[in-house]
Fold this sequence. Notes:
- The structure holds three protein chains of three kinds.
- In chain A, 77% of the residues lie in helices and 0% in strands.
- By secondary structure, chain A is an all-alpha fold.
- Chain B is built from 13 helices and twelve strands.
- The chains are: A mainly alpha, B alpha/beta, C mainly alpha.
Amino acid sequence: MRMILRRIGLYALTAWVAVTVNFVLPRLMPGNPVQTLIGKLTGQVTPNEIRAIRLSFGMGFHEGLLAQYGTYLNQLAHGNLGISITLGAPVSSILRESVPWTVGLIGVSTVLSFLIGTFSGAILGWTRGSRFDSLIPTATFFQAIPYFFLGTVMLLIFGSNLHWFPVLGAYSANVTPGWNWAFVGSVIRYGELPVISIVLSSVAGWMLGMRNMMITMIGEDFVLMAVAKGLPRRKVIWHAARSAVLPSIANLSLAIGLVVSGALLVELVFNYPGVGDLLLQAVLNEDYPLIQGIFLVITFTVLAANLLADLVYLGLDPRTRSEAAV
Amino acid sequence: MSTSRVDVGDRLERHGATPARESTPSARAFVLEVSDLSVHYGVDANMVRAVHDVTLNVRRSTVLGVAGESGSGKSTLVYALTRLLRAPGVISGGQAILNVSSPDDPTQVTPVNLTTASERELRRVRWSHVSIVLQSALNALNPVRRIGREFDEVLRTHRRSLSRSDRRRRAAELLALVGLEPDRLDRFPHELSGGQRQRTMIALALALDPELVVMDEPTTALDVVTQREIITELAELRSRFGFAMIFITHDLSLLVELADEIVVMYAGSIVERANAGELYAAPRHPYTLGLLESFPPLHGERRELTGIAGSPPDLAAESVGCSFAPRCPFAMDRCRAESPPLAPLGDTGRSVACWLHTEHSVVPVPAPLARRWTVPSGPAAPGVSR
Amino acid sequence: MKTLRLPRSPKVLLGLGIVGFFIIMTVVGPWLAPDNPSSTAFPALLGPSAHHWLGTTSLGQDIFSQLLVGARATMVVALVAGLVATLLSMVIGVSAGYLGGVSDDGLSLLSNVFLAIPGLPLLIVIDSYLPVTSRSNEFVIGLIISLTGWAWGARVLRAQTMSLRNRDFVEAARIIGESRRRIMFTEIAPNLLPVLASSLLFTVLYSIGAYVTLAYIGLTSTAVWNWGTMLYWAQANNAPLSNEWYWFVPPGTCIALVGTGLALLNFGIDEFINPRLRAGGLSSRQRRSLGLPRRTRLGLTPVLRPRAPRGAPRRNVVSS
């Protein structure tokens, strides 16, 4: 229990740091970009909207820095992330539409990639020295390819040339969004290529990590004992793999951030209506409230995923459980 | 070849998984017969010869002690003969035969050549006929499994007919043998004390009533009191169930308490082999003498501990002469030129690889060795309790 | 002091070759470029030809020149970021591991926070606030990338330092009365070398990815040619959908190759740090000639058979 409380504390602190970075950055930068932005907007939007923008940055009128910070936190606590400059709508409602797509796409790909990578890594580690080893340089190559580039190549080959997969967007224009089979089927169909791209880019990392841990575990006495006990090979591998997967899961919380970062750009390649695509628009238009809102939402989501990974780890490793009991 | 076979006259050509056949007298008498076993680490120019030409036999229901410093090849030997030695270890010669007796008729014995056996044949004899206890039980038990599951797994694999509750009952029985409560079955290894963990390992090793249990320094990591208790328990269990044991340790005085026969290894070879009591009372090899004087006996009078100066040789280097010569206080010119074979010592039934004790040796036995022989001897002297 | 001798496996050699090639390209690339990468003097969207090895962009720029010139900015940013991040992680990780106590708690917390924040989104936020002049400066970008990339290395180095701290030679230095700083930098740092090298490779790898990504979404100055900017223009002009592979495949492949080279080198270092990862020491040819199986199975120690031809077995006969 203590371990989980500590992790929650860490994540709360991290969340606070992210929130504060958002507040401090605009004020640190030379020329105060927000002030410039508001100047640019005057005349284009109503004074009420400008007020809302200022509020969301914590820039009330002629207040001290601390009071500004208070205003900012207060706005945030009420879920007010400001108003998007380009879209003219509240950032929170814009995000409400795109976040589910991202969470679905990246969540599914990460889980798939972790499972496939861990499984194949265990096999690779066990059969070290066999011809499977020649997979390693290939896997390394895939690991080094930027997610968005691999996505682009996949799109080119399997989407626009071979027409195996539909491209661009999250579902066909011919279906009505909602809980009907046609729509769900279409979402799955359109999700295939992006998911495959993300899995291909990220699977090598899990695989190589698991392979190394597996090799390390095979060097442990208890695995040798499993052999000495005359257990069937499958059970011996299980002995080693069960322990080797623990560091992989412990690293999951570190890797989620990287995977999410990479995967966001895959959305962009496939015009997937998720946060990644939104982020690009926001960056191109210097839509600060939107950029900041996206940053916060991504950070919070990643932290939640981290916590989940920690809970899984706790469930799998009895040693941490009893340490917590002490 | 310099090897001598002391115990077995009839040499048998055997191959793995020979179908049941007429049991020879030697197969009935010995649970394990190892001949000329050599082990290398690596096979190229950098190879290390860890064990060479070792021949030994383990008589049924007896304890064979294997003593030597770390690096003497004693662990390598037993891992190799059970085929558990890890890469880059390679068996480069010799064979090891396990004489497996059938559970229905103990007189019916099937020899299994471990050095030619397939993975499947090995799997069949492992744990049901030969089990192992390692030095660190903490490392040998899977850290993320409850103790009960280790027992359950072994019983389920080798005793298919047992039901779940039967297996649980059997596990509790086994723990009771080593004085542990059945509630330990629901614990994780890290929740037990060092002594409890090692007892668990011993109980686990006895789970299938094996004919041979290999103990690789099982008590080295424990405190002296626990060590003492476990040795006593082992002696009791052995006399109750009649399994044979190979007990590896660097602590020769411990072996004197427990073992029937002792082989002393140095630099990958056996340098002396004798009945435990005789070895203690009258060591012949200077290295044995050194080992005996490095440890206090578990009980008995205190003695000054002298130990052995120097360190074991680099096995990667080719050496001429006796490998112990550089450290031997009694080394002669001959020792540096010629390697002594392991030869029988008259009719005593023991053998030693030392130029001091050859049949036609004209060299007088050095005083420190001889002095020890005058200690009131006889098999009962060190108090072998059984 | 331990020297870092990498195992001379094919993997490591290949890695060295690849990384070496791109380092040379970084140095001489801009001089070798046949044309000004920004010049729009050529016809648009030519396919690869003898004149334009990799064709031209939709603005009529020579892609091969862009690739050569772009290598420098990409590699410089990656190196700057990698070096600064490794320095940061060394200072923070080694201090935390060596000092222990409250300093350790504080520094560990700091690195854990940086580990938990997703790096790229943070990078995008910071970068989007940068004035355009700073965005074209490789060093500024490199510094910012290093800010988001040091935490992992710090964590690994802290763990390594903690295990070194209690070794005999450090203890000895402490008893002699050497100053803490001296012990830290002369006794501990050299022994951290393999971990440090691995951490440098990792951060350089991360930095290339981060820089290229920033460029790809248009957050670096488009006036500076790098591989990411090339991809940005290719994507902006719909090259992937129009089958203009020669526009975006070369820069992407270069990125992947550099990354592969670094990762292969890292394998060597991993095997140096963790000996268990090293192969059994026998080449497959040796194994075959000795009649040994291609790989050793756990619990099936190989047995040399006497029929093995010349070579090692003869040595076995040497008796003692």
